[in-house]
Design goal:
With 132 residues, this protein is of the alpha+beta class.
Length: 132
């Protein structure tokens, strides 16, 4: 069974480190002989470069995904998933994040965390309906 974890509180990758990670992932893109694919919402780790016809996936297997949101400059890691293939290769949520964050000198454990605010108060104007 695959492993998916919501990162609470979310990990924050500071601006300078985020730029380093983004640049490193681009340099190690699956279409350039690397093992990473990235977009504005994710970093995906594959078993190898895309070797299919016309740059398609071919034999490369998805091992895991780091789901992110971009603030103006910072990146927030909020969910990480490891596929069955990733688990078979010994990959964990921590090892996937640590591999991605290593070029910036970070680990998942060392990343600053998002501040969790108080839950909003109950709406005092909400009418409570009774059934009966």
């Amino acid at each position: 069974m695959a492993d998916e974890r919501v990162i609470r509180p979310a990990a924050i990758v500071p601006a300078r480190a985020a730029r380093l990670v983004k640049s490193w992932a681009a340099d190690n893109d699956v279409t350039r002989g690397g093992v990473w694919a990235s977009d504005t919402t994710y970093f995906k780790r594959f078993s190898g470069p895309f070797d299919g016809a016309a740059g398609m996936r071919g034999t490369a297997q998805l091992l895991g995904s780091v789901h992110v949101t971009w603030d103006t400059y910072e990146v927030t890691i909020f969910r990480v998933s490891i596929t069955e293939e990733g688990l078979e290769q010994g990959m964990t949520v921590e090892s996937l994040c640590d591999e991605l964050l290593a070029p910036a000198g970070l680990t998942l454990a060392s990343c600053p965390r998002a501040a969790l605010g108080q839950a909003p108060a109950a709406d005092p104007f909400r009418r409570r309906w009774q059934t009966g």
